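Hey, quick one: can you model this chain's 3D structure?
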Amino acid sequence: IDTFKDKRMQPIFPVMFFTGIIIICYATILPKIAQLSLPGASQNEVNEKTSFIFTALGATEFISGSLIGKLADRFKKVYLVNVTNLLVQTGLFISMIAYFQSSYFAVMLAGISFGLGEISSNTMLTSIIGKDFDGKLEGFTMFRFFQCVGCIVGVLLNIALSNVPLYIEIAILAVLQIAANPILNLYKAKEE
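Sure thing. Here's the predicted structure for all 192 residues.
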C-alpha cells in the first residue's frame, strides 16, 4: 500500500501499465494484419508466416534486452524509457501502414519494432526500480501488478473492439501509448 502512495513512483505506474498493453497489442494485432497481408494463403501458410513474425520479434527482444541494459548505465533512464515508448509507437505506426497496404514485410517490421520497444521498456523499468528505489521488492511487485492490469485491459479492449475495423483499434492503442510519454516526464530520477 505504501508503494501506491510513493509520489516518486506514481509517474512510472502508467508506463508499467502500458507494457501490458504492448504485449496484448502485438499478440492480437500482428496475427490479424499478417492474415490480411496474405490473401489466398491457407491457414497453415498464415500460421507459418505469423510464426516468422513472432520469431523475429523474440530475436529482437533478446538483442534489445542485451543492449539496452548497457545503455542504461550511460544515459538518463527516463530518456531511454521515452525512446523505448517511441519504438512501440513506431510499431503501431508501421502496423497501420501494414494494415492499409496489406504488406507482410511491414507486419514483420512492426513485429521487430514491438520486440525492440517492449523488452527495452521492461528492462528500463526494472533498471529504474533497481537503482532509484534501491531494488525494493514492492517496486518490482508494482511493475508486475500494473503490467498484468494492462494485459487485462488490453484483452478487454480487444474483445470490445472486435467488431470495429482494425485500424481503429490500432489508433486507440497508439493514443494510449502516446499518453505515457508526458506522464513519464513527471518522474524525477535520482540521477537528476
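One thing worth noting: The chain has a mean pLDDT of 86.
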